[in-house]
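Researcher: Sequence recovery benchmark, item below. Answer with residues only.
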């Protein structure tokens, strides 16, 4: 059974959030993803499902800026609706990468920590 899917030039709007540990995440079609790696100065990114380690979910998304250019593999678990709802209730959902990072940087500076996205730890929540 092949679980592979690929959609190029997806026009679905991405939403961005920040994990409890401060890593950038995206919300797309009721699932959450975290940054796996970046290229071209951070403009191009590959995002893994937040359940990659815990449930071995193979789903990932590639973006260029704030646009999805590739999605591959089906998720091996239910939607992340409860986690997404918690983020929405805490006003932690943003419409762009820049907005999410600016909020993150402001929070880190307020807490006395310096924030650089390259030294942020991955976390699934």
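Model:
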């Amino acid at each position: 059974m092949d679980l592979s899917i690929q959609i190029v030039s997806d026009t679905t709007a991405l939403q961005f959030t920040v994990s409890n540990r401060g890593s950038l995440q995206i919300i797309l079609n009721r699932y959450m993803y975290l940054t796996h790696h970046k290229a071209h100065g951070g403009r191009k990114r590959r995002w893994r499902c937040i359940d990659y380690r815990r449930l071995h979910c193979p789903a990932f998304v590639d973006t260029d800026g704030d646009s999805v250019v590739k999605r591959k593999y089906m998720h091996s678990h239910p939607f992340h609706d409860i986690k997404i709802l918690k983020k929405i209730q805490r006003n932690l959902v943003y419409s762009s990468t820049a907005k999410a990072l600016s909020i993150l940087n402001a929070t880190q500076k307020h807490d006395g920590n310096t924030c650089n996205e390259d030294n942020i730890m991955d976390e699934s929540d």
